[in-house]
Predict the 3D structure of the following.
Amino acid sequence: MKLSFTTLGCPEWELDLIIKRAVEYGFDAIDFRGLTGEMNIYKLPEFSSQLSHTRDQIMDAGLKVSCFSSSVHMFSAEKYAQNLAEIKEYARLCSFFGTRYIRVFGGSIGETGRAEAIETIVRHFKETGAIAKENGVKLLLETHDDWTSCADVKVVMEQVDPEAVGVLWDLHHPIRTLGEQPEDTWAALGQWIEYTHVKDSRLLPDADGKFKYCLTGEGNIPLSDMYKLLERNGYDGYYTLEWEKKWHPDIENAEEAFPQYVQYMRNLSK
């Protein structure tokens, strides 16, 4: 089992501390989603002028970079040029770090009809995916926002280059927000799933479907069953904790959530 975490969970930590704690807690890799307040990490010295030093730090610690999680929303036409530039920056970083994946969002489609939205996102993926592929990288479309449904994602995946685009299965969102059963998600998307985000939550009483994130295994997302489903079907990618401390400052600190996650996941594999 390969374990990683996104830096959303430790938004205030400096790079040195991220690396130190990753080793201390027993992770195998880091998924960069921001660093010390800057979401576009390629703007920081650690990922520009000090790039070689950063790579040496991570490698010398026995860690890898499992993914660079971008802010790209693939549907957006207004920000398409900006998104293209961002993907080029992350593709450069992937090549340097030997990282396979760049996470992208589908993004909100607003009042656009689903058929038109699919046509748009497929068109955008063809150009951005080609850039990724040239760099030996794959874009991962996350089951998130208006692209949480496996049926919607499947239609996209059937029309894009599978060597350039894959699926990031956020284990939480489809079942929590849509009631989509994991077996159905896998049946529809399994051939494209190459990466996962793991998080847990519990429903709030009398809150009309609202939920609160909680420590791994303390909610009612069937993570144990989902792990068994993935393993049974030969999944060998990362199980990446997406602890959204950046967006939900009231949840537990990384010092508690990170080691608890590692212990929970390692116990699943016994």
